[in-house]
TrEMBL record:
InterPro entries the record matches: CDP-alcohol_PTase-I, HAD-like_sf, HAD-SF_hydro_IIA, HAD-SF_hydro_IIA_CECR5, HAD_sf
TM region positions: none
Entry protein name: Haloacid dehalogenase-like hydrolase domain-containing 5
Family statement: Belongs to the HAD-like hydrolase superfamily.
GO terms under biological process: glycerophospholipid biosynthetic process
Record keywords: Signal
One GO cellular component, as annotated: mitochondrion
Superkingdom as given in the UniProt entry: Eukaryota
Keyword Ion transport recorded: no
Record's keyword annotation contains Cell cycle: no
Length: 443
């Protein structure tokens, strides 16, 4: 409870921080000497995957060379590395094996963070009966995260065969099969975009409007609904196609609008995790700390560099976490100045929402171990490219309110958080820049 109160105080300071505090980047990719080197053994790298290392199943050419520079002759990483992706349609082991094959270096499952990884810490939901939506081995993923009673969309439609009727070929033909029945559903967990959107949208709405008993009659006035936890808010993502593809964030937009259209109420989330939520970056930082320990480092990691291609997910999220870190250090200094006594106003507590944190799960590390900051590095090989000119790369310009906001409905639009700390061409250039920045040799 004390730690959550501390976080609430930090977040209040973060929300009131100066909007101009985020660093503006130069349009010149190799202006690397703007910050002083921080010395060896002081930083960690957070890599996005799609659009940074791969495009669909095809590796981006610079990625292999980049990782050759990141490991020594024995294949051991020189610095802590964690892969932070909003994908969530597989197990960590599977993603690690895939990356190892693509990059020609060994990637451990402990280095992989999927959008749903922080759900391990949401233990208050693990004993509930949860409906899971997504694709891939969603049932196995849910059990692996700690959930004990799992219902999939397919299990639900088989138990209640008259619910899924958009596709005429899936409707009962001659006679209506009997309802099998399932235990009441206590919460809904959305892992990622499903294959049959119409089926998932229909059945999730059924569950929400019947308090987890989809064989009952809808009751749109019963509000609020059972808890909904959503992973991956990406509106768009980059595969082999020339233009971005719809992501899970687009599915969430559909679900939110359908629910409001039917009930007149806003769909509410118990937790929104995955980039750009603060809880996701803090969980990634815990993994970085573990990697540093595995490397035998005795000094704490002072700075994180988050390398991504999506201004809304990667840049916004890294900058948001950087603000959180600054607010945390400010709060710590304030507490120390007042002899460790912290008086927190009830209004501050009320203004802190679980959605802004990514959920009320207590995954945060000791405040003494938090890094000094987190820098955002934007590459031009994915969702963002310089040809789009969506970001003002001239430091004299600013992002206007007219900029299209691709973020989630529940995240406030803050144009300064869209400004990357650095803009580079590709991931190889990003790593070279970071090493030079930190005073590390590349070879």
């Amino acid at each position: 409870m004390q730690r959550l109160k501390y976080l609430k105080s930090c977040w209040q300071l973060l929300k009131s921080s100066c909007e101009g505090a985020t660093k503006l980047s130069s349009s010149i990719s190799r202006s690397y000497s703007r910050l002083p080197p921080r010395g060896p053994s002081s930083f960690g790298l957070l890599f996005d995957i799609d659009g940074v290392l791969v495009r669909g199943r095809t590796p981006i050419p610079a990625a292999k060379q980049c990782f050759k520079n990141l490991v020594d002759r024995n294949g051991k990483y020189k610095v802590p590395v964690v892969f932070v992706t909003n994908a969530g349609n597989c197990m960590r082991q599977t993603k690690a094996e895939h990356l190892s094959h693509l990059l020609d270096v060994e990637v451990s499952p402990d280095q992989v963070m999927l959008s749903h990884s922080p759900l391990r810490m949401f233990t208050q939901f693990h004993k509930m009966c949860v409906l899971v939506s997504g694709q891939g081995p969603v049932e196995e993923v849910a059990y692996n995260l700690g959930f004990e009673d799992v219902v999939t969309i397919d299990m639900l439609r088989e138990a209640y065969p008259v619910l899924d009727v958009v596709d005429h070929n899936r409707r009962p033909k001659d006679s209506i099969p009997p309802t099998k029945g399932l235990p009441p559903i206590d919460a809904v967990v959305l892992f990622g975009e499903p294959i049959r959107w119409e089926t998932n949208l229909q059945l999730i709405i059924d569950v929400l409007l019947t308090s987890g008993n989809p064989d009952r009659t809808w009751n749109p006035t019963q509000y609020p609904h059972i808890p909904v936890l959503a992973c991956n808010m990406d509106l768009l993502w980059m595969a082999e196609a020339k233009n971005p593809r719809f992501g899970h964030g687009m599915f969430l937009v559909c679900l939110e609008n359908l629910y409001k259209k039917v009930t007149g109420y806003e769909l509410k989330y118990e937790a929104l995790i995955g980039k750009p939520s603060v809880v996701t970056y803090n969980y990634a930082e815990l993994l970085i700390r573990q990697q540093a320990e595995n490397l035998g480092w005795t000094t704490p990691v002072k700075r994180l560099y988050a390398i991504g291609d999506n201004p809304m997910a990667d840049v916004y999220g890294a900058n948001l976490y950087d603000r959180f870190l600054q607010a945390s250090h400010h709060a710590k200094a304030k507490m120390q100045a007042s002899s460790g006594v912290q008086a927190m106003d009830r209004t501050e507590e009320a203004e802190m929402t679980s959605t802004e944190l990514g959920g009320a799960a207590d995954v945060y590390g000791s405040k003494e171990d938090l890094p000094e900051g987190c820098s955002s590095v934007l590459v031009c090989t994915g969702v963002y490219s310089r040809d789009q000119r969506e970001l003002p790369l001239d430091p004299t310009q600013t992002v206007t309110e007219q900029h299209i906001f691709h973020g989630h409905r529940d995240f406030r639009f803050d144009p300064t958080l869209m400004q990357p700390s650095f803009v580079v061409h590709d991931v190889k250039e990003a790593v070279e820049m970071v090493f030079q920045q930190e005073g590390w040799p590349l070879v």
